[in-house]
Amino acid sequence: MPSSLPSSNNNAAVDLTEEMLRMSVDRLNSIHPIWRQFILTLNDLPVSRRFDILDGESRQQLHEWLVSTQGEQDVLDPQDPLLEQKLYVRSYVHLQRGSYELARQSSTCLLEYDAQDACYQLFRGLAEFGLGNYQKALLHLDLAVYHEPEHPLANALVGLIAAFTRDHVKAFRSARQALVGRQQIQSWRGTPWLELALFQSEHLLFGLSSSGGLDSGLFSEVSVQPHLEKLSCALPPAYEYLEFVGSEKKEVLFVSCDSKYFYQYALPLALSLADCCSPLSLHLHLINPDDDAFELLQRLSDTLGGNLRATYERVEIERLCHPLVYYSCMRFCRMAQFKLTSIHDYAIIDADMLINRGFSFADVRNSASQNADCILTYSRNEPIWDCLLAGFCLFGAGADHILAGISEFILQSIQQQKCRWFLDQVALFLAAQQASEESVGYLAPEAFCDLEHKQDSYIWAVTTEKNAEAFTQRADALMSRFLYSPSLA
């Protein structure tokens, strides 16, 4: 296990550096616009203390000033009796518009009025955060919590940042407090960040966590055969549509998705495999496919020279869990079912990826930290829910027990409604934490989950930003050749 991968025996906070936090924030922003989430919290700030003291005439004057200036930078009179309220409005407006230097100037003036006001410290912290001054930002956010220990918004930000920087004690305290006041944070409803921060801090501090909608106690080593029997009862039937040509052992990329993702992403992925003359085979498992998908699968099999296996299932997803959880997580259970009953080695890969250079599983093992049967993609200095990436994972013959453990944890979590976004990557972390050191190797994401789309990387990846130019151009070119010619030759 890489030395910086957090474990239950390492509870000390990692020293905070600007670069460490910058990497964490940049990566999270690539997955979800979390910085915008920070700014949206401003909509939940209670402002009555600053405006209830105003009489009707003062309120009218403030309203006229706001309408005429839109809160922009005009010269304020230092003797203006409404100066504090105007600085408050100006700080708010500049933060919403991304004018962080102006927001810093206004919030600095507010702190001269009252340095113990948690809201003013929060404004200054957000401004510094927007400017990339993370150490200063944390100082002001910590002061906001110090002056108002139950402030939900300040605690939410402090708890999440502490989770990134592995300050588990602070993350535990602040995330838990923020969740107590969650009803006051309308803009954070439906997001998993606070729950994940609390889950991580509890698990790494105490070795176990059942917070945040997840339960690490559900993870345990399992025997392969009993788990297969459980899968056959728990999963909907899987139907065979196309089988591999030949009976020899293969190295298989496994992709699972619905029809929409098949047309938009998995089909270009399959074509990129053929375009690179990769020695790998492909197993496509479709969830609730439509009729058009079957016609394309047959043609795709011809393009791949018979190195395609296609299976599918019919399932009412909403009866089991949220669709995002099902698509991202149950694929590990389904792959376990297929892999553990075959002679082949399997690697799971996200549908929204492209093969950029042909490779074999030997290339994967040679690129890893050590030659092991289980190879995981490891992103350094990330929280436990995002340090082992589910976008590409290899499971050889000796990793059957690891895959069965991951599958068992996911299955139990969904059956007990202990599941949420990132459950799959939490499962990978727990598996790596329990596995012996020699049984797992680690890949750097730059080669096998490349978000920058470099020419020498093996696999190109995208996150929520699906319109990356180089990625989109290659996918479009592959699809154009497939649709208008009988083969890629």
Summarize this structure briefly.
This protein has helices at residues 18-31, 34-40, 48-51, 56-69, 83-97, 100-113, 118-130, 134-147, 152-164, 168-180, 193-206, 224-234, 259-275, 291-303, 323-339, 361-367, 400-415, 423-434, 445-448, 469-484; strands at residues 238-242, 251-258, 281-287, 308-313, 345-349, 353-355, 374-378, 388-395, 440-443, 459-461. It has 489 residues and is α/β, with parallel strands linked by helices. It folds into two domains: 18-212, Alpha Horseshoe (Serine Threonine Protein Phosphatase 5, Tetratricopeptide repeat); 217-484, Spore Coat Polysaccharide Biosynthesis Protein SpsA, Chain A, CATH 3.90.550.10.
Per-chain topology:
Elements: H1 18-31, H2 34-40, H3 48-51, H4 56-69, H5 83-97, H6 100-113, H7 118-130, H8 134-147, H9 152-164, H10 168-180, H11 193-206, H12 224-234, E1 238-242, E2 251-258, H13 259-275, E3 281-287, H14 291-303, E4 308-313, H15 323-339, E5 345-349, E6 353-355, H16 361-367, E7 374-378, E8 388-395, H17 400-415, H18 423-434, E9 440-443, H19 445-448, E10 459-461, H20 469-484
Parallel strand pairs: 2-3, 2-5, 3-4, 7-9
Antiparallel strand pairs: 1-4, 5-8, 6-10, 7-8
Helix pairs in contact: 5-6, 5-7, 6-7, 7-8, 8-9, 9-10, 9-11, 10-11, 12-17, 13-20, 15-17, 17-18
